[in-house]
Structures are given as structure tokens and as C-alpha cells.
Design a protein that fits this description.
The chain is an alpha/beta fold. Helices cover about 15% and strands about 25% of the residues. It has a ten-stranded mixed β-sheet with strand order 6-5-4-3-2-1-17-18-19-20. The chain has an eight-stranded mixed β-sheet with strand order 7-8-11-12-13-14-15-16, with helices on one face.
Length: about 400
């Protein structure tokens, strides 16, 4: 793997976070690192000429889960982060416990083959199931996932039939197979996949998912909830919401999320914005359900690579930031791509990473934009809305 900037070890003040108050600003503080007993998530900034999105989730006891792995030119980027975390966090073991590929597009799944040449996968490779491949999908990506499973003898979890190598069968989905305990009560739960949630199917209510463009595959994206203590974070792949003539799957899922999770009118603390901040995702009904405008501070984040030209879209930033929906929270992005829109309240990592780490066993969380040189651009701390609805915020920023 190529060299990467070495992160500085956090001070004892950061390690011994008070449980009775929101942590104070850490002026000039170090990059956020995994801490035993807390949950850590890192949206990795990917560059180069290829589209890509990847993130790493580290459980309180060091379990490592990749959520998407980027394109086949991004294995070094992802691998460098894995090496770094194992080096600086004693409780994090080198390797990968699980990989979740949200859908069959090259920018989310093609990196799996090269990545597994360098890192052991101790657990499962989870994907939506080799079903319903159309011109909207990427058969090459599905082939790479299946080839990696066969080559390395991996444990496979196909959320919908059929698994790799099996004869096509009548479509059935079991999102609950995507239940990943992460230690100390932290868990990643798949809530929906392939247009299906709690037995309800989009195609039964609205007709078949699109097949004539790539958004038909985006509509099949896995939706997963990460829970730890009072903190809730929703991951959405490239799920579509109806904008740019896409299938309105977000609106189909939104009223049903409470049937498959503990989500209620308080929504989530942190929302991954689908499809790299483009207007095909992040519909108004979706944001209203998950980021209600109730005065509580929440945050949204997105993974945008250099090649995601035009991301993020103006309408998405307006929905998030123009009406104080997020209170003292904000939208965070790994970068603003060429011809993408900016906003005074958008926090950019300038090609670096967006990092989230809980404190107090999930009573709240830090969120940080870390630039490509490993320097924090901005760090803030928030209470989880289920522990305290507050606009209190700790802020450290580099102008």
C-alpha cells in the first residue's frame, strides 16, 4: 500500500470524555481515531479519474466493516486507511470482518477483488443477491463479487435470491440476514434492499423498477441502520428518491422504517446522502422523515470522489441547509467535485475524509472533516437526539 500521512494519537483529554457534558472544543485538536468502547465511522475521500465511494465502520471492540469499497483503482486508498487504523488503534486488528456492497455499480463494488488480495476477510461478504440484473446494473460488478467469493472461499450473504453460482429462483428477500453485531450493543442492521422493506415491495405498489438507465440499480441499494447507545446513523448507498426521473423508493421506504427498526419521529442523528449528493436522492419526504426540522441538531454527510462531476447538487444543499433543518448541524462532504455546488454551511474535507466517532457510549458523537494532509478542517461534537435535543456544539476549524 502507498504511504499515507500518519495520524496523531489523541490526548488523554479526548480519551477520557466526560459523560455529563458535551465535550469542549479541542482547538488545534488531532484527527479522530478509533477508541475502544466507542463506534467509529470514516467516509473515505477517493480521488483519481474513476468514480468511487467507500467507508469503514469500526465497532467498539475493533470489529471492521467496509461499506462499499470503491472502484478497482481505489484499493490502495481503502487499504491505506485499514493499515493506518490497525497501526494507531491497538484494539483494531488488521483485516476486515465484513464487507457490505450496497449495489452492483463499479464505483461501489469493483474494488473488492484487489482489496482481498491484500486483506483477510474474517466474516461475510454481503450483497443484494444476483437477481434482476438489467442494463441498469453492472454485471461486471456482480461477477467480480462472485469471483472474489469463489476465489477466497468466502462466507456469502445474499440478501435476496439468488446467491452466486445458484440457479435463478423466485425472488425472495431477507434483509434481516444483514444483522451485524459490532460489540457493546452496537449493531448494523439492513432494513431494506432491492425495493423491499418489511415484506412490502415497491414493484407491487408502483410497478417495476427502472431498467433503462443506471438509476434502476441505484434504486435497489441496501439501506442499513447503525445503532450504538442513543446514536442512530442511516446508510443508503445510492438509493433513489424520484428526482431526475428516478424511482421514488425513498418515499416508499420512509413511512415503513419504524416497522423494521426503532426509528420514530426523531429520525436519525446522521444521514448518509444517497448518490453522492445528487438530486436523484435526498427527496423532501425522505429528509422530513429522517432529519425532521424540530430544532434538534443533526448532520448529513456524503461521499464524493473527484470524478463525481457536478456533485453535490444545489437542490439537495438547499433542502438541507436553507431552512435550518439541521439546526446547528451541517452537511459534510469528502469534496465538492468539479462543477458541484457549494454552500456557506457545507463543510468540505477537500478530498480527505469525513469521520464520526461517538462519545459516552453513544450519548453523542464527534464529526470531523479531515483533509488529504491529515489536518482537521473542522471538528464538532453533538448530543444524540435521543439523549438530549440540543443545539450545543463544540467547534474547531481551520480557516
Amino acid at each position: 500500500m502507498t504511504p499515507r500521512t500518519v495520524l496523531r494519537v489523541p490526548s488523554m483529554l479526548v480519551l477520557l470524555l466526560p459523560l455529563v457534558a458535551c465535550p469542549a472544543p479541542r482547538e488545534g485538536g488531532p484527527p479522530l481515531l478509533p477508541v475502544e468502547g466507542e463506534l467509529y465511522y470514516r467516509q473515505i475521500g477517493l480521488g483519481g479519474a474513476a468514480l468511487g465511494e467507500a467507508a469503514v465502520l469500526v465497532g467498539p471492540r475493533g470489529q471492521v466493516v467496509l461499506v462499499d469499497v470503491g472502484n478497482d483503482s481505489h484499493d490502495d486508498n481503502v487499504g491505506d486507511v485499514l493499515e493506518e487504523l490497525a497501526r494507531v488503534a491497538p484494539h483494531v486488528q488488521r483485516g476486515i470482518d465484513h464487507i457490505l456492497v450496497t449495489h452492483y455499480h463499479a464505483d461501489h463494488g469493483d474494488g473488492v477483488t484487489d482489496l482481498l488480495e491484500h486483506f483477510q476477510l474474517r466474516g461475510s461478504l454481503i450483497h443484494r443477491g444476483v437477481h434482476g440484473l438489467t442494463d441498469a446494473g453492472n454485471g461486471n460488478t456482480a461477477d467480480k463479487i462472485c469471483s472474489a467469493i469463489a476465489a477466497h472461499g468466502l462466507d456469502e450473504v445474499a440478501l435476496c435470491t439468488s446467491p452466486c453460482g445458484a440457479a435463478p429462483d423466485a425472488r425472495t428477500c431477507a434483509p434481516q440476514r444483514g444483522h451485524l453485531p459490532l460489540g457493546d450493543g452496537a449493531v448494523l442492521d439492513v432494513l431494506a434492499v432491492d425495493g423491499e422493506i418489511d415484506g412490502a415491495r415497491f414493484d407491487h405498489d408502483h410497478g417495476p423498477l427502472l431498467t433503462e438507465d443506471t438509476n434502476g440499480e441505484n434504486a435497489r441499494s441496501v439501506v442499513a441502520l447503525v445503532s450504538f447507545g442513543e446514536m442512530r446513523m442511516l446508510l443508503t448507498g445510492d438509493l433513489t428518491g424520484g428526482g431526475s426521473d428516478t424511482d421514488p423508493v425513498e418515499a416508499f421506504y420512509a413511512p415503513r422504517l419504524g416497522d423494521v427498526s426503532d426509528l420514530d419521529a426523531r429520525g436519525v442523528d446522521l444521514l448518509h446522502l444517497g448518490h453522492h449528493g445528487r438530486d436523484s436522492s435526498s427527496s423532501a419526504v425522505w429528509l422530513d422523515a429522517l432529519l425532521p426540522n424540530d430544532g434538534c441538531a443533526r448532520n448529513a454527510f456524503m461521499g464524493i470522489s473527484t470524478a463525481h462531476v457536478g456533485s453535490p447538487h444545489e437542490v439537495v444543499l438547499q433542502r438541507l441547509l436553507d431552512d435550518e433543518r439541521l439546526a446547528s448541524g451541517s452537511a459534510w462532504t469528502t469534496r465538492v467535485a468539479p462543477f458541484g455546488e457549494d454552500h456557506p454551511s457545507l463543510v468540505e474535507a477537500y478530498g480527505g475524509d469525513v469521520i464520526i466517532r461517538t462519545f459516552g457510549g453513544g450519548l453523542g458523537y464527534f464529526i470531523q472533516a479531515l483533509d488529504q494532509e491529515g489536518v482537521p478542517v473542522r471538528t464538532r461534537a453533538y448530543w444524540a437526539v435521543r439523549s438530549r435535543c440540543s443545539a450545543d456544539v463544540a467547534d474547531t476549524q481551520r480557516e
